[in-house]
Amino acid sequence: MIPGNITREHVLQAITYINQNGVPSGRGSTRYNLRHDGCLYPPKYIVSLANRFANGHELPPAQFSGGREVNDFLSRFAFTIESGSARPPATPAPRPSSHCAAPRHNERCSDCKNSLIDMFRCVYGHVKIDHKIQVPARMDDYVAHPCHADLEKVLHALQKHRGHREFVRLRHLHRCDLYLPSANAIVEFDESQHFTAAREVALAQYPTSLPVGFDLQEWKNRCAAIDAKDNEPEFRDEQRAWYDSLRDFLPLIEGMSPTIRVFMGGFPWCSLDSRDPNDVAKFKKMLSPFLPVPHPSDGNVLVATVVIASDGNFDNNSRGELMRQVLLKAAVTPDVFLFPAGYFVTKRQPSTELPGLVQMVRETVAGMSRKSIVCFGVDGRESKDQVAAAVWAHGLLSLARKFHPTNEEKDFIEAASGPDAEEGDHSRIFEVAGKRAFLAVCYDGFGIRHRALPNPGVDLVLDLIHRFNPKGQGGSGDVYFAKHGLAGSSKQWGCPAFGAAVFFNRPIPMSWPTGVLWNQGSKSTQRWKYSDNPFRHFHEFEVNSGSETAVVKIYQA
Fold first, then answer.
1. Domain assignment of residue 96, yes or no
2. Are 409 and 311 found together in one domain?
3. Are the beta carbons of 306 and 339 closer than 8 angstroms?
């Protein structure tokens, strides 16, 4: 049955689409044609396409009848139906069809790209053009990643396709076309050169668990119909298909929203005006259901975890500048920034440095449009004192001393008497956006589980972790900490646990979870895997300052 909300305007949009892209194999007319402006079009395919503009997807031909049903429907809109078959060209037509003199809209139209950017900006607010996301391009970088096997299938299929094996030449992917911070999604504007036989081979290997922001079958069909070829260099099609696949895998690689793809030849996008509510509604319907929902911040706590890659060359001044850049660069301002333990270091007691540090943070927060709480660690007296502080626009909000030292620390550390002990008349529990947060200093996350502590009425654990050294050296247990510190405390208290740490002289593992939510019942934390974690950040950005790099991930809790 043909949906009753399809209008003449939707049919005209379908005609425009065919003028640009032709008719794919198997969808041509066999007995009747619609005539419009001297052109002939297959009526049933026209209605299938019109449903895309009316309801967001092509109407499968099996769901309605050709002949009388389609012809009567189109005749209601004053279209002329003629007997006799016609054979429109397959997608895409390199030049106007012999049946139609209408010019094909240029898929490289710069106005189309600008209109799309305006539309995405209208729907999602702030957008980033040509945005850099640090996505490794080589298979070796994914050996320890949960999606390694799925990516390996794609790569091997591409290598087998025409025998080209060495086509991965980048260390990291180039910039994406568009990034939507409020949805944590990228947008790619696909022109005809992306629709190749190699791309079809890659798409066929995608796992069913991979969410995509486009019609996967439609992309496969376009690859078969367009069959573009780029032989400069000879492996360019495989190379482009691999890089496109990595961008599509971002939901599994980085926990992002599905990658949105827009076919630039699919519609004259420059005809849409972002100032017209009707055009905005049309745009949303055309890309539905693939558009992610903009991130709702009201009523939720936004937590930003700050993980740092460092060569050890830092001081309190450089750390202060790195913090300032992190706070001011965030496109989506979180309620809480979580920096690592020992972020600042003093030879004296931490209390002697706190007034100056608090003032510095207050001044930075004061310059933000939305005020945040900033959590950071201060180590004093050669790590005998390890404290965590939470600072907001009005000063020091919360202060906590480590209560669960490691076995090596027990002989020299000045530890708190317990998790409920106050530090300088300040509690380690504070309120943020209507929820209660618990400050934990490094191994305190293990203490929550090991001591079987009852939840003191908190909604999230903020664990400031010190450092992870290179593999093979002491203090390199990032996986162990994720399992038993973050996952363990989340399991014990039934709330999300967040962690921030410094990776010294080693890269930050891309899969290391800075936000964990336990959903595995009585399963042992020893058997917990990163892939078990349902918690995903919705935004990520990177800041470089001096010799240190901060990777910031923002979660909704």
1. no
2. yes
3. yes
Residue 102, domain member (yes or no): no
As a whole number of Å, the end-to-end CA separation of the chain is 44
Q: Nearest CA to 41 among 68, 61, 22, 65?
A: 22
**CA of 389: how far to CAs of 325, 421, 463, in Å?**
19, 14, 12
AA letter at 215: D
462, with CB counted inside 10 A (0-12, 13-18, 19+), is buried
Residues 279 and 351 in one domain: no
> Are 462 and 485 a contacting pair, CB within 8 Å?
no
Write phi, then psi, for 161 (nearest 5 degrees): -55, -55
Do 125 and 71 reside in the same domain of the chain?
no
Task: State which of 239, 261, 287 marks the end of a domain.
Answer: 287
Q: Are the beta carbons of 223 and 149 closer than 8 angstroms?
A: no
Residue 12: which residues within 8 A CB-CB, separation 6 or more? none
Answer whether residue 296 is part of any domain.
no
Full domain range(s) for residue 310: 302-556
- Which pLDDT tens digit goes with each residue over 242-281? 999 999 999 888 878 889 999 998 788 988 888 888 888 8
Instruction: Write the pLDDT tens digit of every residue in 178-212.
Output: 998 877 889 999 999 999 999 999 999 999 888 89
pTM: 0.52
| Distance of alpha carbon 529 from alpha carbon 513, whole angstroms | 10
Instruction: Report CA 135 to chain centroid distance, whole Å.
Output: 12
Residues with Cβ < 8 Å from 199, sequence gap 6 or more? 219, 223, 237, 240, 241, 244
CA atoms within 13 A on the CB side of 301: 26
Other Cβ atoms less than 10 A from the Cβ of 421: the count is 13
Question: Same domain, yes or no, for 195 and 257?
Answer: yes
Cis amide linkage into residue 136, ω under 30° from 0 = no
| 506 within some domain | yes
